[in-house]
Specification:
139 residues; mainly beta; Methylamine Dehydrogenase, Chain H; 4-stranded antiparallel beta sheet
């Protein structure tokens, strides 16, 4: 996957045995959002979630058998202004997606339903003062 911040798109590629890349389908796949910077793929390989730092949203894409992408959802954050989502990770079961935000010093949580997301009640969850998170691991 290649993320294009300027035009808000995700690109998909096939990797040949010699390491060369070729675009899949109509790649790049635009979603109208700004600055997609991090992606997480569902454990079953059926969906991709792109964190759009500039527009403070998460785009959900269905991954077809040939690797092409279809945008199926765009989810905003209830957390208010100032949020700048960065890295995202699914929990080990794939039921929840967690997104860190250095600006709010918090983690937002979303319930996953296919390619759709619903922010969990009480989200965003504050971190200790000075944590300034930019990465995340869910174990």
């Amino acid at each position: 996957m290649l993320l294009r911040a300027g035009n808000g798109s995700v690109s998909a590629f096939n990797v040949a045995g010699n390491g060369t890349l070729s675009s899949i389908g109509a790649s790049p796949y635009a979603d109208g959002q700004t600055a997609p910077c991090w992606v997480e793929i569902s454990h079953d390989g059926a969906y991709l979630f792109a964190v759009n730092t500039g527009s403070t949203t998460i785009s959900g894409y269905r991954i077809s058998a040939d690797g092409s992408l279809t945008n199926v959802s765009t989810t905003g954050f209830r957390s208010g202004t100032g949020i700048r989502p960065f890295d995202a990770r699914l929990d080990p079961t794939g039921a929840d997606l967690y997104v860190v935000d250095a600006a709010l010093n918090a983690v937002s949580a979303f319930a996953v339903s296919g390619g759709a997301l619903n922010e969990i009640s009480g989200s965003a969850f504050s971190l200790p003062v000075g944590a300034t998170p930019f990465g995340l691991v869910a174990i």
